[in-house]
Amino acid sequence: MRAVVFTGTSISHSDARKILDAEYRQPVRRDDIRKLMGSPPDIIGIIDGVFFDSAAVAHREIIEALKSGVTVVGGASMGALRASELAPYGMLGVGRIYEMYKSGAIESDDEVAVTFNAETMEALSVPLVNVRLTVKAMQEAGVLSEGQAASIVYITRKIFYPDRNYRNIVNECVKKGIIGEAEKEELLGQLKKYEVDVKREDAVLVLKRIRELEQSLAQE
To answer: Which of 57, 92, 152, 192 sits at a 20 to 30 Å CA gap from 217?
Structure first.
């Protein structure tokens, strides 16, 4: 059983290997899936992918893989976006981000985009979808009002995705009058305390789903 997984920013390859024994590759780019089909794996997992720096993985190449009998599972980032779009063709989606795309709660690829270190693949910015769920957790805990939570999400959306981090978000909140200068460090601390890394959580779910599929196929 051969599984190939594209990831690196939502979860590191070393951490992913602790969950699933697979062939790990860097975030997927245009034609990466098509190249795989020369010697197709049984399962392809798409977690991370490039968005703006180079051409994103095409719908057609994923559809071609599905039609050839390869199982394709997606979630967390590019995988969640493509799975929501290609569910009618048989691509499997897992996780909260996938469900948010599928339901229309979020639509733009900007929601999951981050900038990352090309060598280590470590994320260097915070994805908007993480901020959404972080402020939601803060609102549910009574730390933020509904209006404050909505304002923070709105402000984050206006920040160019490579520049999204909690320090910049807090600074913009001060500029926009959402909080006062004296409250800046407190808000920053609360954002970090309640931080929800939903992209990592969903990446783990993708890996576990592939593991389950492998076990199921092995029993057939």
So the answer is: 57
Strands, E assignment, 53-176: 71-74, 92-93
Sign, CA torsion 128/146/203/166? positive
Going by C-alpha positions, the residue among 10, 5, 6 that lies closest to residue 113 is 10
Give the Cα separation of 28 and 15 in Å (integer).
Answer: 18
The torsion of the CA quartet 194, 8, 3, 22, rounded to 10 degrees, works out to -90
Those residues with Cβ within 8 angstroms of residue 181's Cβ, 6 or more apart along the chain or in another chain: 174
pLDDT of residue 122: 86
Residue ranges of domains in the chain: 3-121+199-219, 128-197
For tokens 């997992």, what's the residue? 45
Strands 71-74 and 23-25, by their bridges, are: unpaired
Which residues make Cβ contacts (< 8 Å) with residue 38, sequence separation at least 6?
Answer: none
The CATH number for 3-121+199-219, chosen from 3.40.50, 3.90.1570, 1.10.533, 3.30.70, is: 3.40.50
pTM, full prediction: 0.93
Q: Please state, in angstroms and rounded to a whole number, the distance separating the CA atoms of residues 150 and 156.
A: 10
CA 138, CA 131: separation in Å to the nearest integer? Answer: 10
Q: Which stretches in the chain have pLDDT values below 50? A: none
Q: Quick one: DSSP state of residue 58? A: P
pLDDT for position 51: 79
Element (H, E) at 86: helix 78-86
